[in-house]
Amino acid sequence: MFVNNCPELVSLSEGGLPSNLCLLSITFCDKIMLGMEWGLHKLHRLSQLEIEGGCKNVESFPEEKLLPSNLNSLCISRFSNLKYLDYNGLQHLTALNSLEISSCDELQSLPEEALPSSLSLLCIKECSLLKSKLLNNKGKEWFKLAHISCIEIDDEIIKDWSEIADVSCKETDDDVNLLEEP
């Protein structure tokens, strides 16, 4: 389901999303306010979630139990007040393979404890405060990424252990996709 360019949309109501939803993309809905009332945690078939813009109420993401544990891919962009990623909200995402964070200029750090161990691809774009802590593969936050096979920062592949992990980073039309090799 794609929700695009709805400048007055504030929320998605619980029960308003189909239970068999696999993909949810919300873009350019600048007044959207993310919250538990959306019922995302109940969408057990949701595997891909993209939210671009809005969410001005969010300083920490994701709220604990906000997202379904079976989520494979998460992309967040233009969260203007996002300061940190919440370990308690990420720890139960046991199927999360791909995480993309872009244009979150206030994002200062990754969770102290760690990102999910299932994560194979991390893409960070235009997050200047966080990028400075990841520079030269040895910044203050770098140790938190040791388990991730492929890391891309501002369109530069920083780490690609595809031969070891049987995954590879491949760019396609400015998007990064995780491809499992047969």
TrEMBL record:
Species of provenance: Quercus lobata (Valley oak)
Superkingdom of origin: Eukaryota
PANTHER family named among the record's database cross-references: DISEASE RESISTANCE PROTEIN RGA4, PLANT BROAD-SPECTRUM MILDEW RESISTANCE PROTEIN RPW8
Biological processes per GO annotation: defense response
Keywords, in A-Z order: Plant defense
InterPro entries: LRR_dom_sf
Protein name as annotated: CC-NBS-LRR protein
